[in-house]
Design brief:
heterodimer, A: alpha/beta, Aspartate Aminotransferase, domain 2, 2 domains, seven-stranded mixed sheet, globular, B: alpha+beta, 6 helices, 3 strands
């Protein structure tokens, strides 16, 4: 059976060049980069090269890159680290209602520990209004964090504009760029961020490695204590194979971005066009233009998302849904909720995120498969009765 | 989360799908907020469930539970059909993941509602039935 992976926002396969480099490295270079001897120095050389590559990708200096265990840890260090380091200046922090749980749950944790938090609403496309950010900042505000693009609906936020406002107020600005890296340009100066979270496994690198960019001059309180690695911000012996793989993935991703994003966007546009034209009562979630080039998020009326995901899986197609029944918590996605979607449209949500391996034929196969599945599920959906009649 | 082969079979090939135009007992449970709606149609003749069909909006386990429930009561006396429990539905499907057990509860409730709907139209006394509101609130949080 044909296999079509359309869940690249969840994770990506290792790029073959990344895999090859990591295998060589794991076999040949086991040293601890903190060691003084030749084994340590050799490992250090590799990690410094990788640090340079990640820095180059986002227009930063290598000493501004701090490797972490992934995007979640980068978000935690950025938020808790800023809130704690600047506690004397104030106890108010701001984010949006549609952030990843790595941000939202860290805000909840800080709220329980004496911080005041503001969650900004979004419009029906999932867009944060920069004026709302300006209006929410108080003299006690120490941090604003707004994701670069949303992982579910793909909406790209006006980060540069928000960054300007936040900087004018002397507040630290963090953004989670896990979904945008290597898909659209991510440059720390253009975006005006002080802190930026990155992850390797979304860009064809390995799992378990990410990074936090920290602009020179911003002081953070560490949340992991120990041997003082990563210039005392993130203790623990470095995940050297992960770092080396991340560096390679960053290099390839930066090199191929323009061409690959254009190609993927062409496929994604065709997918959206065909689904909306050929399947009745389907809507597109997220912003029509300001969205990630590889993201499509639909609401299919009268059917439930998990049954769509299961049916597509039986046809070899991997997608995800924000429906309550597929969430594990039986609550619909907080992102779709924040958009103000009617309940029945939230339950029929379907996210397809494209990547390197996808082809024109894949898109045709997916559209044909989805047409049959929706027809079958609607044939016995009580909600679809008026439509069928 | 993994579904049993039985669940996948009933999800992909549901039995007794559709509506009965001259049904004499209909039971509908669930709502769009929770994301599952089950509607069961009965044709009762001489105290026997002669025919039963269903329409369901919901996840894989909701569709499979509806299908299995209709199989379990077809051809049975009303008294027999009334004894259907959510556990029996789940067991007949070789089990459901814990978080999906409420789908089998919906199936049980839909069958009971349909039977009582028939009893009302036939001028019979309603059988006493307590809905599992607690289970639904537990899984959906309100």
């Amino acid at each position: 059976m044909r296999k079509v992976y359309l869940d690249h926002a969840a994770t990506t396969p290792l790029h073959p060049e990344v895999l090859a480099l990591m295998c060589d490295f794991m076999r040949d270079t086991f040293g601890n980069p903190s060691s003084v001897h030749s084994f340590g120095r050799e490992a250090k050389k590799f990690t410094q090269e990788a640090r340079q590559k990640v820095a180059d990708l986002i227009g930063a200096a290598p000493e501004e890159i701090y490797f972490t265990s992934g995007g979640t840890e980068a978000d935690n260090i950025a938020i808790i680290g800023t809130a704690m380091a600047r506690r004397k200046n104030g106890n108010h922090i701001i984010t949006s209602a549609i952030e990843h749980h790595a941000v939202l749950d860290t805000f909840k944790y800080l709220a329980k520990n004496g911080f005041e938090v503001t969650l900004l609403p979004v419009d029906k496309y999932g867009m944060v209004d920069p004026d709302e950010v300006a209006g929410a900042i108080r003299k006690e505000t120490t941090l604003v964090t707004i994701m670069h693009a949303n992982n579910e609906i793909g909406t790209i936020q006006p980060i540069a504009e928000i960054g300007r406002i936040v900087r004018e107020h002397g507040v630290v600005f963090h953004s989670d760029a896990v979904q945008t890296l290597t898909k659209i340009p991510v440059n720390v100066d253009d975006l005006g961020v002080g802190l930026l979270s990155l992850s390797a496994h979304k860009i064809y690198g390995p799992k378990g490695i990410g990074a936090l960019y920290v602009r020179k001059g911003i002081r953070l309180q560490p949340i992991i204590h120990g041997g003082g690695q990563e210039r005392k911000l993130r203790s623990g012996t470095e995940n050297t194979p992960g770092i080396v793989g991340f560096g390679k993935a960053a290099e390839i991703g930066g090199r191929d971005m323009e061409q690959e994003s254009k190609r993927v966007q062409g496929l994604r546009d065709k997918l959206i066009r065909r689904v909306l034209a050929e399947i009745p009562s389907v809507t597109l979630n997220g912003h029509p233009e300001q969205r990630l080039p590889n993201n499509a998020n639909f609401s299919v009326a009268y059917v439930e998302g998990e049954s769509l995901v299961l049916s597509l899986d039986l046809d070899g197609i991997a997608v995800s849904s924000g429906s309550a029944c597929s969430s594990g918590s039986l609550q619909p996605s907080h992102v779709l909720t924040a958009l103000g979607l009617p309940h029945e449209m939230m339950h029929g949500s379907l996210r397809m995120t494209l990547g390197r391996a996808n082809s024109e034929e894949d898109i045709d196969y997916v559209v044909e498969s989805l047409k049959g599945i929706v027809t079958r599920l609607r044939s016995f959906s009580p909600l679809a009765q008026p439509v069928r009649a | 989360m993994m579904y049993s082969e039985k669940v996948m079979d009933h999800f992909m090939h549901p039995r007794n799908v559709g509506e009965i135009p001259d049904a004499n007992g209909i039971g509908e449970v669930g709502n769009p907020v929770c994301g599952d709606i089950m509607k069961i149609y009965l044709k009762v003749e001489e105290n026997i469930v002669k025919d039963v069909k269903f329409n369901t909006f919901g996840c894989g386990s909701a569709i499979a539970s509806s299908s299995m429930a209709t199989e379990l009561i077809k051809g049975r006396t009303l008294e027999d059909a009334w004894t259907l429990t959510n556990k029996a539905v789940a067991e007949a499907l070789d089990g459901l993941p814990p978080i999906k057990m409420h789908c089998s509860v919906l199936a049980e409730e839909a069958v009971h509602k349909a039977i009582n709907d028939y009893r009302v139209s036939a001028g019979l006394q309603l059988w006493d039935y307590k809905e599992h509101d607690d289970i639904h609130a537990q899984v959906h949080g309100n």
